[in-house]
């Protein structure tokens, strides 16, 4: 299981790293128009952020596995965090990311950084696994679950 994890992580890291190296090499070796340069630099930046997030996710996983992950629990309004995260994905060109907020005053006791990470991973995976485009909808609603 551990070797499968290492293989998966290596593959996930290689993809953005290849983009960073490829676009950097183009910028260093070719005479490129300024607007194209800006596009390449933007791509390099996005892929570097993606690499950083992947590494942080992997380190979090290691800390959780060893029981050393620390959480900063606080009361948070869920819809405010969801709205903030959905706004981060407004630049998506192939996907429309929407928040449908049917919930009322939902507060959770959670670690804000981990909750943000959860939303980013969920939306990111929805985008990644629907490469042809389309809508990604985040629905918040109150549900009463009867206990046994």
Low-confidence stretches: none
Mean pLDDT: 86
Silhouette: globular
Task: Return the string of H and E elements.
Answer: HHEHEEHE
Main sheet properties: 2 strands, antiparallel
Spatially, the strands of the biggest sheet line up as 1-3
As an assembly, this protein is single chain
Tell me roughly what share of residues is in helical segments. Answer: 55-70%
Our measurement of the CA-to-CA distance between the termini, rounded to an integer number of angstroms, reads 35 Å
Number of strands: 4
Query: Rg from C-alpha positions?
Result: 19 Å
Estimated share of beta-strand residues: 15-25%
Would you tell me the structural class of the helices and strands? alpha+beta
Number of H/I helices? 4
Architecture blueprint of SSEs:
Blueprint: H1 2-29, H2 34-66, E1 73-77, H3 78-88, E2 95-101, E3 107-111, H4 112-128, E4 134-140
Parallel strand pairs: 2-4
Antiparallel strand pairs: 1-3
Explained architecture:
The protein is an alpha+beta fold. It is built from 4 helices and 4 strands; from the N terminus they run ααβαββαβ. The protein has helices at 2-29, 34-66, 78-88, 112-128; strands spanning 73-77, 95-101, 107-111, 134-140. The longest helix has 33 residues, at 34-66.
Q: Which terms summarize this structure?
A:
148 residues; alpha+beta; two-stranded antiparallel sheet; two-stranded parallel ribbon; 4 strands
């Amino acid at each position: 299981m551990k070797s499968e994890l290492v293989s998966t992580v290596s593959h996930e890291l290689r993809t953005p790293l290849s983009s960073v190296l490829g676009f950097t090499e183009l910028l260093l070796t070719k005479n490129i128009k300024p607007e194209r340069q800006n596009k390449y630099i933007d791509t390099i930046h996005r892929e570097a952020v993606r690499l950083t997030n992947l590494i942080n996710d992997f380190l979090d996983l290691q800390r959780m596995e060893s029981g050393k992950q620390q959480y900063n629990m606080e009361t948070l309004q869920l819809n405010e965090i969801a709205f903030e995260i959905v706004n981060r994905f407004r630049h998506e060109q192939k996907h429309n990311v929407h928040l449908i907020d049917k919930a009322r005053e939902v507060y959770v006791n959670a670690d804000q950084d981990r909750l943000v990470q959860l939303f980013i991973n969920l939306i990111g995976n929805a985008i990644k696994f629907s490469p042809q485009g389309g809508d990604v909808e985040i629905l918040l609603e109150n549900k009463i679950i009867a206990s046994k």
